[in-house]
Amino acid sequence: xxxxxxxxxxxxxxxxxxxxxxxxxxxxxxxxxxxxxxxxxxxxxxxxxxxxxxxxxxxxxxxxxxxxxxxxxxxxxxxxxxxxxxxxxxxxxxxxxxxxxxxxxxxxxxxxxxxxxxxxxxxxxxxxxxxxxxxxxxxxxxxxxxxxxxxxxxxxxxxxxxxxxxxxxxxxxxxxxxxxxxxxxxxxxxxxxxxxxxxxxxxxxxxxxxxxxxxxxxxxxxxxxxxxxxxxxxxxxxxxxxxxxxxxxxxxxxxxxxxxxxxxxxxxxxxxxxxxxxxxxxxxxxxxxxxxxxxxxxxxxxxxxxxxxxxxxxxxxxxxxxxxxxxxxxxxxxxxxxxxxxxxxxxxxxxxxxxxxxxxxxxx
Length: 364
Hints:
Layout (H helix, E strand, L loop, with lengths): L1 H13 L5 H7 L1 H8 L9 H13 L5 E5 L7 H6 L3 E4 L6 E7 L6 H5 L2 E12 L5 H10 L4 E5 L5 E7 L5 E2 H5 L5 H9 L5 H5 L2 E4 H4 L27 E2 L5 H28 L5 H14 L4 H19 L3 H14 L4 H13 L3 H15 L1
Parallel strand pairs: 1-2, 1-3, 3-4, 7-9
Antiparallel strand pairs: 4-6, 5-6, 5-8
Helix pairs in contact: 3-14, 4-9, 12-13, 14-15, 15-16, 16-17
């Protein structure tokens, strides 16, 4: 039975599902077009991904200790995966010790509560964090084996274990065979293990050489994601057939390549004349992986900004946001309709009619 579950999970991983539009139209990003305020700037599905990355690194976990100021935001994802969660316990030992944001407990006490094969996961908000501060955090993290993950531009995670270990891919795939856990992931626009691995950056040893030059600069993903895809030497085949293992590894590589396209687009977008190149990189990335979390986060921020512009009467600013969204995702029906509404008010009925027509065609 477990073998059949693994095969079924692998099939899910290798399928190229074409239902992204459905999840997008029902996601917070689409809702942002209708109801978001300027304060709702964070892309909420990133919380889902952070919790599941912790579970991915400890796929046989049973008990989770929640620590830190934001850890309760992640409880439901662990409980949906049938893990027992406790908070602020100071005596037990746990398969996953999950720290959300700041925590007053010293690392040595936290490390003492990790089970012999357990993991320590630290979800970090790097908003306005200088490189020097992040380097200190990375070096002080008390694990022999440490991995850096980046689901979003500002929401990162360190996951480590006290003794280095290699993880079996077949046990990781079982996370996607659990109905409730998979539903959470699907709602977060993540439908496969390779899509989740798009967020993987590397080991601490692979990341530390990136700290060069002026460390007073605010951290950015593109400063730490290497141009070359990192070797994931800690990932092994387990009970999977060789052809399935090779296919999953190839798909992980593909998702990593897409993430680099997104980041390259981010770099271009910050230059004086690079927006056209940025749009080209982003639209190519979306065609190859329409569910890249960092790309969806950027589209979500555009939707929030567009609504904020509308609220203060800056319709040209809103239109520009929608135009960017449509350039990246030409079949985004929600953005097309919102753009049509704005163009009507701005006095461009022909453009509005074309956008509405396209939105109807997409919805069919």
